[in-house]
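About this split. The held-out portion is used to measure sequence recovery: a designer receives only the structure tokens and must propose an amino acid at every position. Recovery is the fraction of positions where the proposal matches the reference. Here is one held-out target exactly as it appears in the evaluation file.
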């Protein structure tokens, strides 16, 4: 199984991107804090970002890669690249139409996205203006997702994983260099989004050219492959993007809450997304092409083994991440964001949201692993049914919990819906015997639980010493995280839970 090398490549570049992303968010928090401008910009960014997460990390790749890989295996590289060229031509045309329609109808779109702003004309007009600047990002990033899918199918994972680095670098340059030339800080950040998408697209086009993958504009035919792509992509968007749909609902409902609520949820979600991206997205992206090839070659036992190791690997990393984030949520928020316009009160309110999100981390990550298992078999019907049900669950719990816990209730509802989604995905895979838990997973699962109970006690007991250097919050957090990781690795060694050896990354006797 060749999962480790692409996992490390994707996760490595994702880690660099997330570090730069945190630097970006630290600067945003310091410059705009958690007030009106921040709320409006985060909503404006949410619209194209919602589609980015569906396309770049979800439905488009999940629908495109199995078809492209199948053509590549059965008919060869030229035919596969011709299919890619047809998809490029269709996608370009569809995106231009979509962007033009949304730009024209933006007042109606933002009214739906943030109905709570309708009572404040200044907020609403600013949101319309910023959304029109940010929305073309969707055009750029959707083409990026196509080029990334093609490169991934040839086991070229580096370029697609590195592209988000340019998003964060563009933000950082704009914040540090161009604040004075824009009408508001919100306008500055919105134009940073626009140019970040353009830079990422140029980078991916260069990578396609460098790898001699000749993708051109052609006259597309509505072939069986194109039909199958469209058949898979719409339900796939809902199935792979249930977390994003839930987060979009969160924004809609949070617009009715006090000013700052959207910002608190944003900053908490940014921390929460780190383990999801490093573990779930990275492993899910590496898993899909591998599974697709094993299934197309009718190697069921190998596919079952691959799935078991992916789940096992996911649990070893996701459970301690969830526990640590929950226990030390406040020091995390404080270390990253508490400076400049970001107040102590904003820290406390963001940390509470982060704790609620953290409860769902294992579920968020497992969904990223389980969804490709369905997509590799070109089954998008089951995930979409589950997703629709979970959107309904999220909405109901949102309405109930926000009455008592405000923005924290919204984060709690998202975590609950993600666990329901995860468990239902597991249930139907087990029922159809597309997942069969092997003895290695059953044996190691008990050890994983025991190790994480001990790890939780360690974090809980020693977190009181996290502020040993009173004026160096980030240094304190970094030392504590490194010590915690070291302790966790020692626990894995003590209980002989050598997950990595299953991937043939290390040879441990």
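Reference sequence for scoring:
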């Amino acid at each position: 199984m060749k999962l480790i090398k692409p996992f490390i490549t994707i996760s490595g570049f994702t880690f660099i991107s997330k570090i730069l992303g945190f630097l970006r968010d630290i600067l945003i928090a310091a410059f705009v804090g958690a007030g009106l401008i921040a709320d409006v910009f985060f909503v404006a960014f949410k619209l194209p970002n919602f589609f980015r997460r569906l396309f770049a990390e979800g439905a488009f790749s999940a629908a495109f890669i199995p078809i492209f890989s199948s053509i590549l295996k059965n008919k060869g590289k030229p035919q596969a690249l011709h299919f890619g060229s047809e998809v490029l031509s269709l996608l370009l045309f569809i995106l231009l139409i979509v962007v033009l329609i949304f730009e024209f109808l933006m007042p109606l779109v933002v009214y739906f996205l943030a109905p709570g702003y309708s009572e404040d004309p200044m907020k609403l007009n600013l949101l319309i203006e910023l959304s029109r600047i940010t929305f073309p990002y969707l055009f750029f990033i959707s083409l990026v997702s196509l080029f990334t899918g093609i490169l991934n199918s040839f086991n070229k994972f580096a370029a697609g994983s590195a592209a988000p680095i340019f998003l964060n670098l563009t933000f950082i340059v704009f914040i540090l260099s161009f604040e004075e030339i824009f009408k508001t800080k919100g306008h500055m950040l919105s134009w940073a989004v626009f140019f970040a998408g353009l830079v990422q697209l140029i980078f991916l086009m260069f990578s396609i050219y460098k790898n001699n993958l000749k993708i051109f504009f052609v006259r597309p035919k509505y072939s069986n492959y194109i039909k199958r792509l469209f058949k898979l992509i719409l339900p796939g968007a809902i199935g792979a993007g249930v977390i994003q749909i839930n987060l979009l609902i969160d924004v809609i409902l949070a617009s009715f809450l006090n000013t700052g609520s959207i910002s608190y949820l944003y900053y908490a979600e940014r921390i929460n997304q780190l383990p999801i991206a490093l573990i779930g997205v990275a492993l899910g992206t590496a898993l899909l092409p591998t599974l697709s090839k094993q299934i197309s070659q009718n190697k069921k036992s190998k596919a079952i083994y691959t799935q078991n190791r992916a789940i096992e690997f996911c649990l070893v990393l996701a459970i301690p991440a969830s526990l640590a984030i929950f226990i030390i949520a406040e020091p995390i928020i404080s270390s990253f964001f508490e400076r400049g316009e970001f107040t102590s009160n904003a820290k406390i309110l963001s940390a509470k949201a982060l704790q609620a999100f953290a409860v769902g981390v294992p579920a968020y990550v497992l969904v990223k692993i389980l969804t490709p298992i369905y997509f590799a078999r070109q089954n998008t019907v089951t995930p979409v049914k589950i997703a629709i049900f979970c959107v309904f669950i999220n909405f109901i719990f949102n309405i109930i919990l926000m009455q008592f816990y405000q923005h924290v209730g919204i984060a709690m509802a998202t975590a609950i819906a993600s666990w329901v989604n995860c468990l239902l995905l597991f249930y139907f895979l087990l029922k159809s015997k597309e997942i069969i838990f092997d003895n290695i997973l059953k044996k190691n699962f008990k050890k994983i639980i025991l190790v994480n109970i001990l790890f939780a006690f360690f974090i809980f007991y020693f977190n009181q010493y996290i502020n040993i250097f009173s004026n160096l919050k980030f240094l304190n957090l970094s030392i504590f995280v490194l010590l915690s990781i070291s302790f966790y690795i020692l626990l894995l060694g003590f209980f002989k839970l050598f997950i990595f050896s299953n991937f043939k990354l290390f040879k441990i006797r």
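Annotator remark: Residues 4-437 form one domain.
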